[in-house]
Amino acid sequence: MIGVNAFYIQRTRDRGTMSTISVKRLNDVVVVKVHERMDILNAPSLVDEFNHLLDDGITNLIVDLSGVHTVDADGDYPLLHLLRRVQEVDGCLHLVCPPENPIRVFYELMHLDVLFSIYETLEAALLDFEIYPDHQPHFSNGHISLS
Predict the structure, then answer these.
(1) pTM for the complete prediction?
(2) C-alpha gyration radius of the chain
(3) Strand, helix or coil at 29?
(4) Cα distance from N-terminal residue to C-terminal residue, the chain
(5) What is the DSSP letter of 117?
(6) Given this model, what pLDDT does residue 72 score?
(7) pLDDT attached to residue 7
(8) Running DSSP on this structure, what letter comes out for residue 120?
(9) Residue 8: which of 100, 115, 139, 96 has the closest Cα?
(10) Going by C-beta distance under 8 Å and a sequence separation of 6 or more, which residues neighbour residue 39?
(11) CA–CA separation, 19 vs 65, rounded Å?
(12) Which of 49-58, 96-105, 106-115 has the highest mean pLDDT?
């Protein structure tokens, strides 16, 4: 039986940005769902949050970008930083990006999609970690405001 830990972290920061993330843990995999935007305004806060996870010993992550609607050239830095840090600890990083997602389109245009394991759905990413969709996290509560 696969156990689910409800909330892994609950940090709230408010310095004027509108972006939030939700973080859930399933066994040794952490699912980070980013909402709304990835841009110059919240890139530093995303890097901080990813660093906190890695500093806490998390090495297997899924970053769900299906809720992101705005991205700019600075918005890719947190994911590239996370990828480098995960590789340093022999971890694994999966991204969830539906085909029409602006980040996926941006990554394909810039040929950055070859760096990441990108899945169309959270279910597909969970299956790759051998976590089955009926045990997936629910993100109805626990939003974390990013600065």
Answers:
(1) 0.79
(2) 14
(3) strand
(4) 37
(5) E
(6) 84
(7) 43
(8) S
(9) 139
(10) 70, 71, 72, 74, 75
(11) 12
(12) 49-58
Q: What is d(CA 142, CA 15) in angstroms, rounded to the nearest whole number?
A: 18
Q: Could you tell me the domains of the chain?
A: 33-145 (3.30.750.24)
Torsion from C-alpha of 66, 62, 78, 81, nearest 10 degrees: -150
Whether residue 147 is predicted with pLDDT greater than 90 in this model: the reply is: no
Reported as a pLDDT band with limits 50, 70 and 90, residue 107 is confident
- Specify burial of residue 67 (Cβ count, 10 A radius: 0-12, 13-18, 19+): middle
The amino acid at 71 = V
Q: Please give the backbone phi and psi of residue 131, each rounded to the nearest 5 degrees, phi first.
A: -110, 125
Q: What is the pLDDT of residue 10?
A: 38
Closest CA to 25 of 50, 8, 1: 8
Tokens 């299906």 found at: 66
The predicted pLDDT at position 141 comes to 43
Cα torsion 110, 114, 117, 123: sign: positive
